[in-house]
Amino acid sequence: MDSSAAPPMPLHDADDDFLWLEDIHGGSALDWVRARNAETEAMLFDDGYRAVEDALLEVLDAEDRIPSVTKRGSHYYNFWRDAEHPRGLWRRTDWENYASADTAWEVLLDVDELAAREGTDWVFSGTRMLRPADGEPHRRALVRLSPDGGDAVEVREFDLEELDWVEDGFRLPAAKTNVSWDGPDALYVASDFGEGTLTRSSYARTVRRVRRGTEPADSPEVFSVDETHVLAMVAHDDTPGHERTVAVDVIDFYNSRTSVLDGDAWRAVEVPTDVRVHLHRGWVLFSPQTPWDVGGRTLAPGTLAVADLDAFLAGDRAVTDVFVPDESASLESYDFTRDHLLLNVLRDVSSEVLVADPARGWATRALDVGAPLHSFGIAAVDDEDPATANEYWLTTTGFLTPTTLARGTVAAEGEPPSPPAVVKRAGAHFAAEDHVVEQFFARSDDGTRVPYFQVSVRDLPLDGANPVLMNGYGGFQTSLTPSYSGVVGRAWLERRTAAGRRGVYVLANIRGGGEYGPRWHRAALRENRHRAYEDFAAIARDLVARGVTVPGRLAATGRSNGGLLMGNMMTGYPELFGAISCGVPLLDMRRYTRLSAGHSWIAEYGDPDVPGDWEFVRTFSPYHRLDDDLPEGVDYPPSLIWTATSDDRVGPVQARKMAAKMRERGAAEVWYHESLDGGHAGASDNRQSAAMLATSYEFLWRRVSG
Fold first, then answer.
1. pLDDT 10s digits, 519-549
2. Cα 700 from chain centroid (whole Å)
3. Which three-class secondary structure state does DSSP give residue 517?
4. Given pLDDT bands bounded at 50, 70 and 90, which one contains residue 680?
5. Positive or negative: CA dihedral 420, 424, 425, 429
6. What per-residue confidence (pLDDT) applies to 541?
7. Rounded to an integer, what distance in angstroms lies between the CA atom of residue 585 and that of residue 601?
């Protein structure tokens, strides 16, 4: 049944006593929020909490963090927050300065100063620069600013030489906007232009070409999609020699159509909608999410294939495989230098790097970059600058290894490789010498081996007395990989119980994620969603079976889709956990498509407006699972549910309703906290982040540390 043909669900469900909490800024709802916040703060915010908050803020504000940069022309751009600049500085430098131990920066925009001057708590959300004429420096940029940390942004034109806003320049009001330059005097703008211009997912349905000096609402529409789709996007590719305008109809999270502007008409790249398409110079790259029959053969899900774009548009279906997954390996990401394609591969959730050579038929070879049980990020420095054409950035991180940034050059085939040179090293923020990282596999209910990482002291006593924190996500083909976190180190790994036991951290790689490519993700879609929750529960049981912990000492945390995971742990597996932190969560899966951006996630979860879908969606809707009786003698674990008023992606109302309903159902210990701003991230600056993280970690530690 087509969801668009389903009868609308009534706004007020007769069996929902907490719909009034959906009035995000309503007086009664906010009074309830303030009362719950006061209770949580009175319970938790003591001297011990403040010490943890200060320790985490020290990590977040540390001067020895690596300032990540993007090269544009001769400059390296960075956005930076610290104690003196909580809202941040947009700044730049040159290579010699960046590579030095004491980098001198040129400040382009002080967001704190801007916020104070304009009386709006601006949150920096990125930039898009205009390509200059050959030989000229970059002069113009579009700056995205969120008024509250949410997804809605204001867009303004900035002069990179005058270091000020362009007088009478482009300026778009706050909305969920995507924008692309089309030369110096025009933009492609996907935004809210008034009635009928948004999809049901709250994103842009139409794209307009806005010329300098004209009103966006009066500008001609160049592309549009059905309102039941997620969003419309148009971008101009200004790569010299490969200039083109591309439109994407994002049907749902896993289906889209890509078209190239040919004269005045859009010319589609004819592939199944679940084949991901990426255009780069004269090539088109494909990554199918399900088996794809093309050119007389079948490409496996997760394959990366390439073809000549003009030939493919003309009907030639010859494609070349660049990467083919196997049972243990999947493609995490890729990027181009001038002469090579860099592939970041996960093998049993540890990174490997391959180099593909287009001149040799896309043959691949390994790039030796580091140790197992680590994560590598590899990206081109600037493939258009002849001086850096085949150079790459390599970021290395691990649970116990502070992040390192190196820069190297891809050697031509047959030339001896040289190791990349370290440019920056982040500082260590907890004592890791006595710790070890191990990988284990649990057996889920259907027999699937599910990997997880365990970080603990060496020779960990296996007597069940260790406080353990599990972290999970399991959705949207997102992979959780090893990474260094001074926050986790200080808030959990370094801490000791009264008996001297230190915390154990566990990262769960459950189905629904992308750790093994599309097959791992699709195994937990829609009616199979329960597999993600069975996987997480299997890891919890494995930790107990191995003697690492017992349920009363096992904490779990997750946010967003991970918050939905936590909701299902509360209601489906309460006997396995001693405490749960559930952040910015989805929880009411009956109404999620009608709240904030929820309609865009139907491909992941199903459509509750379709009766056949609601039959399975209800089984993983925590808000409705509360109506089921728990087994005798089992109670909900102590739970903290937290969110942000300004979250315009998931929204705060599901968290509110879940906490209220759990309290009404007599749950012994349910706590709630809601930040007023911060958007879906839950925080807009480092101080807010430290407070949010300390609230979650301190709550969990106190409940399971004994």
1. 999 999 999 999 999 999 999 999 999 999 9
2. 24
3. coil
4. low
5. negative
6. 98
7. 13
- Residue 454 and residue 509 in contact, taking contact as beta carbons nearer than 8 Å: no
**pLDDT level of residue 676 (50, 70, 90 thresholds):** confident
Spatial CA neighbour of 93 closest among 72, 63, 124, 114: 72
Q: Which helix (H) or strand (E) holds 235?
A: strand 231-237
pLDDT bucket at 633, cuts 50 / 70 / 90: confident
Which residues are designated catalytic?
560, 680
Residue 350 identity (one-letter amino acid): S
- The DSSP code for 616 is H
Residue tagged 């906290």 (tokens):
673
Contacts of 464 (CB under 8 A, 6+ apart): 544, 547, 548, 549, 550, 553
Q: What's the pLDDT tens digit per position in 614-625? A: 999 999 999 999
Whether the pLDDT of residue 678 is over 90: the answer is no
* pLDDT over threshold 80, residue 211: yes
Query: What does the block give as tokens for 499?
Result: 């008996």
Higher pLDDT among residues 368 and 305, named by residue: 305
Residue 4: predicted pLDDT: 34
Q: Which of 294, 700, 283, 655 is nearest to 470 (CA)?
A: 700
Q: Is the pLDDT of residue 704 over 50?
A: yes
Side chain identity at residue 441, one-letter code: F
pLDDT at 682: 56
Q: HSE of 170 in the Cβ direction (CA atoms, 13 Å)? A: 30
Tokens of 445: 């209910």
Q: H helices within 502-578, ranges in order?
A: 518-522, 530-545, 561-572
| Residue 413 to residue 166: CA distance in whole angstroms | 47
Instruction: Encode pLDDT of 2-30 as tens digits.
Output: 333 333 444 446 689 999 999 999 999 99
**What pLDDT is attached to residue 417?**
79
Helix (H, G, I), strand (E, B) or coil at 122: coil
Q: Classify residue 263 as exposed, middle or buried by CB count within 10 Å of its CB (0-12, 13-18, 19+).
A: exposed
Reduced to 3 states (helix: H, G, I; strand: E, B; else coil), residue 639 is strand
Tokens read off for 68: 């990540």
DSSP 290-351: S-EEETTEEEPTT-EEEEEHHHHHTT----EEEE---SSEEEEEEEE-SS-EEEEEEETTEE
Amino acid sitting at position 661:
K
Burial level of 349, CB count in 10 A (0-12/13-18/19+)?
A: buried
Q: What are the structure tokens assigned to 574, written together?
A: 């309460």
3-state secondary structure of 400: coil
The string over 306-319, giving b where at least 16 C-beta atoms fall within 10 Å of a residue's C-beta and e elsewhere, is bbebeebbeeeeeb
| Residues 174-207: b if buried by 16+ CB within 10 A, e if exposed | bbbbbbbbbeeebbbbbbbbeeebbbbbbbbbbb
Phi, psi of 248 (to 5 degrees): -130, 125
The DSSP element (H or E) to which 693 belongs, if any, is: helix 686-704
Give the separation between CA 579 and CA 704, rounded to whole angstroms. Answer: 7
What is the pairing mode between strands 244-252 and 275-280? unpaired
Percent of the chain residues past pLDDT 90, beyond the cut = 91
Q: What pLDDT is attached to residue 5?
A: 35
The mean pLDDT value for 315-326 works out to 97
Residue 19 DSSP code = G
Burial of 348 (0-12, 13-18, 19+ CB in 10 A): middle
Largest CA distance in the chain: 75
Reply yes or no on domain 39-58+429-433+467-704 having CATH 3.40.50.1820: yes
DSSP E strands in 413-481: the ranges are 421-425, 435-443, 449-457, 468-471
